[in-house]
Amino acid sequence: MGETRPGLLVLEGDARFRADLAESLNALGYPVAVASKTEQAIEILRDRAVGLVVADASLATPGGAGVVQQLRTAAQNPQLPVFLSAPQEPSSEEVGAAVASGVLGILQRNAPIAEAVYRLNAQLTGRLPARFTGAPRVKVRTPVHFLRLGDGGELSRAGVAEDLSRTGLFLSTAATAAVGTDLKLRFALPREAGQIDCEGRVARVVFPGRDSAGGGLGIAFHSLRSTDRRALACFVIDRLLRASPIFHA
What we know:
The chain is of the alpha/beta class. The protein has 2 domains: about 10-130, 3-Layer(aba) Sandwich (Rossmann fold), CATH 3.40.50.2300; about 140-240, Thrombin, subunit H (Beta Barrel), CATH 2.40.10. The protein is built from 6 helices and 11 strands. The strands form 2 sheets. A 6-stranded antiparallel barrel has the order 6-7-8-11-10-9. A 5-stranded parallel sheet has the order 2-1-3-4-5, with helices on both faces. The radius of gyration is 22 Å and the shape is elongated. It starts with 7 loop residues before the first strand and ends in a 7-residue tail after the last helix. Mean pLDDT is about 80; it is low at about 245-249.
């Protein structure tokens, strides 16, 4: 028997963000109600139980206090979890005002939808959705620079990551390394700012042959920073969601 997921309410004036967020959450098994006006959201909250609300910051007073109080009153839940949404990255003052008013955080509408999905799901469950547990892989073509730990010097060797998961990658390269070899890695996520710097261990070696176009190394990450771990998870979720038919209707 599948787990019962709490319902969400998306009160959002931006039609594209409202639809993408609702469809993405639906794809993960969350029941989602949507509203474009505060009055519609209040009616929904009076009619059904909701576990979390995303509210358009433009509908709120500074800090979100006004609309948050209205929504919590309608839901008869003074602790109803609420995120605000904003068109771009908020200032530290805006975040501080929102948190002071009881808001959990501010979601950026101009960021990949996976960022919002990741934060909302983490708030509701504290873990990744069941669909993304384990290590689902996505196809990529991104350069990777690497070096055996202990060799010293610059990351002079290069290859191409052909698939990527939250826990590792397959590196297409002419370089050889034994299973168990520890490597220092550096690569950028496609279309993402910044880069991932981490360590990994060779878990699999593929030699060129008739069954494969070329050789390479299967590498399992370790010593990932929390920011890099989140960036990888969001990237994989975004790619998997974008492959869903809901984005190609």
